[in-house]
Every structure is written in structure tokens, then in C-alpha cells.
Amino acid sequence: MSRVWERTRGVSPVIGVVILVGIVAILAATIGVFALGFSEQQPTQAPQVAIVADYSERTTGNGEYLNLSFSSGETVYKDTLSVVMADVKRSDGSDVTLDADPIQTQASTRITSGTRITIHQDHFTGAESEHLDLSDATLRLVWNPADEPESETYVIYRWPDPSQRN
């Protein structure tokens, strides 16, 4: 009986080690696929910027205007930013459209802290003879990374803040 007992004891540890090595290899391969596969698919992070809006309701020669001041945050290139405005009107109530992107016409190549953009009547088609009315207007500052065509666009600033809208 001792011979049978010795053979059985010798086979069990070998089978256990083979199974354990197989499980470890499968787990390592699975973790490697997830770790390496998902790191390439992560979307580009939008830049973090702090912008202060100064809206003037007073009627100047150009009507109402909006100043956007970049107060802090990451450096952004103007080629990656665009202004989208909606519900902009003339003082008689008719719609006007944004003709020239104020960021492209006013900002330097690199937008950093201290950059200031003014949005006024001259940026809109159809507002030449009337004062500009921004009281119901909305603005979105959209970031689109130019060097990565497959990446998504992000709205990095909204005016007015949707939570403070009447």
C-alpha cells in the first residue's frame, strides 16, 4: 500500500501547480488586454479655464456687449476654440447671426490668463442699423482639439450659467 500512496501524493501537487500556473497566465493576459486596450481609447481632456463674463446692458454706440476675460487656467490655442451664440437680436426684435468669431479676430495664438474678448455689434450680420440686444442670448465656448480629428468637442464655458437663468 505504501507504493500506491506515494504515487498518488506525487501526482496531486504537480496537477495543482499546473492548474495554478494556467489560472495566473489567463488572469495576467486578461488584465494586460484591459489595461493596454483602454488606455489608448481614453478621450482627450478638455482644458480647464476660468472665465469671467461682464455683460453690459447699457446702450452704447454698438448696443449691448459682452466681455469674456480668461482669469486663470490652462493655456488654450485659439485654433481650438470657437464661439457659438443663439437668440441674439437687434433692438427691434429681429434675429442677427454671428458673422465673425470674436476669438479668432481678437485673441493671440495662445490664450492665457489675462486674455479679454469683447463681443459686440460688429461681429453680427444684420445688426448694423440697430442696437444689439443680448438680454436673451446664450453663448457657448466650444473646444475642439485640432490635432486629433477623432476626438470629441467640449463646451468649456456657457453664458449665462444655465442654473442662474430666469
> What does the largest sheet look like?
3 strands, antiparallel
**Apparent shape:** rod-shaped
- Spatially, the strands of the biggest sheet line up as 1-2-8
Low-confidence stretches: none
Separate helix tally: 2
Along the chain, the helix and strand elements come as: HEEEEEEHEEEEEE
Beta-strand residue fraction: 25-35%
Give the CA-CA distance, first to last residue. 91 Å
Radius of gyration: 30 Å
Structural class: alpha+beta
Helix content: 25-40%
Q: Topology of this structure?
A:
Blueprint: H1 2-39, E1 49-60, E2 63-73, E3 76-77, E4 81-86, E5 89-90, E6 97-98, H2 102-106, E7 110-111, E8 116-119, E9 124-125, E10 132-133, E11 138-143, E12 154-159
Antiparallel strand pairs: 1-2, 2-8, 3-7, 4-11, 5-10, 6-9, 11-12
Give your account of this protein's structure:
Residues 9-86 form the Archaeal Type IV pilin N-terminal domain. Keywords: Membrane, Transmembrane, Transmembrane helix. The chain crosses the membrane at residues 12-38. Pfam families: Pilin_N (PF07790). The strands form 5 sheets. The protein has a 3-stranded antiparallel β-sheet with strand order 1-2-8. It has a 3-stranded antiparallel β-sheet with strand order 4-11-12. A two-stranded antiparallel ribbon has the order 3-7. The chain has a domain at 50-159. The mean pLDDT is 82. The protein has helices spanning 2-39, 102-106; strands at residues 49-60, 63-73, 76-77, 81-86, 89-90, 97-98, 110-111, 116-119, 124-125, 132-133, 138-143, 154-159. The chain has 2 helices and 12 strands, in the order H-E-E-E-E-E-E-H-E-E-E-E-E-E. Strand 1 and strand 2 form a beta hairpin. The radius of gyration is 30 Å and the shape is rod-shaped. It has 166 residues and is an alpha+beta fold.
